[in-house]
Every structure is written in structure tokens, then in C-alpha cells.
Amino acid sequence: MMSRSTIAWVVAVLVICTVIMAYVSMRTKEASAAAAAAPSSAPRKKTRHRWVLVLDLDETLVHTPNEGRADPIERPFVREFLRRVAETFDEVVVFTAGTKEYASPVLDGLDPERRIFGRRLYRESCSIVELAGVLSVVKDLRRLGEADLSRVRLVDNTPSTYALQPASGVPISSFYGDPSDRALVETLARLVSEVAMDGRSS
In the predicted model, what is the mean pLDDT of residues 7-30? Predict the structure, then answer.
């Protein structure tokens, strides 16, 4: 039989070993947690570049008869178009030559929860420039403050509005209430394809 002193010594050694193991386990967990929380030193690879879509309002998304004195007529497929471009682009902006007093309620009708249009630019944001000897309303996309205008697209039924950045312009036919109009469907296909191709080449 072991003496009492020997038993006491064994118990003391076991207690010390248990304390040491508990301490090592605690420090290991702390180190693992710190490593998980620390940012990776390797930069994350971007899946694709930032794309911004700018949309005209009148005769592009809606038509308002009688110079704004009647309720606007929505272009066919406009709701689906807006939903899809909001999913595809990093930001969707409205840039209209209409006044805020007129356009804001129309935009609220198209985007009642304000989840689609990141920014709304009205008449005061437009520029007047001389084009071929004629004063024209132009939407200068530099006002957006985007670093790369090569990935900004402006859909507008009036080509002169993107005269300062013609490469960004996406022409669309004017809408005056035709219920069989399919221009937004065709434009959507072009926009989605362009962004997708850029993602694959990144």
C-alpha cells in the first residue's frame, strides 16, 4: 500500500496537471478566436466592377399625357424591368429633366418603398450646352461622382442628353402609351448581358 504522503503527492500532481491542461486549452481557444476575427492579409478578389444604371423618366419609363395634368401611363414591363436592374446593377439612378415637384410623386409610384432608385436627379442637375448650334438639355454623368464612367449606362429616349458621354448612352424608343411596347424587355436583355460579360472577364 502507498503511504499517505505518497497518495497526497500523487493527488497534488494530478491537480497541477489538470490546471495546466485547462490553461493550455483556454489559451488555444483564445488564439483561435483571435485568428478568426483578424482580417485576412490577402486582399479579397472583386467578383466584378461597380456598375451604375441611370434612367430617364418621361417617355422612357412612363408617359404623362397633357403635359403632366393627367396620371402617368407606365410603360409595359416597367415593374419587372426595375426589379431586374436593381438586382443586376450596384446602383440605379433616375436622372430626369422634369421638375422635382412633378417627377417625385411619379417616382414614388414606381418605387414606393424606395428600394430601387439610389439617387434622384431632377431638372436643376441638367446642363444646357450648345450642340450643332442648338442649345440642348444634357445630362452630364460626371455629376454622379463615379470614378469609372465606362461602367455607367444612361437609358434615355433623347440621344442628345448623353452627348457628353456618348459611350454610356443606351438609346430607347419613345413611349407614348402603346400597350404592345416591348422596348424595356429588349433593353433589359442588353444591360444584363453587358454586366454579366464584364463579370466573366474580371
Answer: 47
Please indicate whether residue 58 is annotated as part of the active site: yes
Quote the pTM value: 0.75
Number of structural domains the chain divides into: 1
**Annotated active-site residue in 58, 71, 181, 198:** 58
Is residue 2 situated within a structural domain? no
Q: How far from 194 is each of 2, 48, 126, 167, CA to CA, in Å? A: 84, 12, 27, 13
Neighbours of 84 (CB within 10 A): 16
Structural domain range at position 170? 52-201
Decide if 56 is catalytic.
Answer: yes
Candidates 56, 108, 140, 178; catalytic one: 56
176-202 pLDDT tens trace: 999 999 999 999 999 999 999 987 765
- Residue 64 covered by a domain: yes
Give me the mean pLDDT over the 134-151 stretch: 96
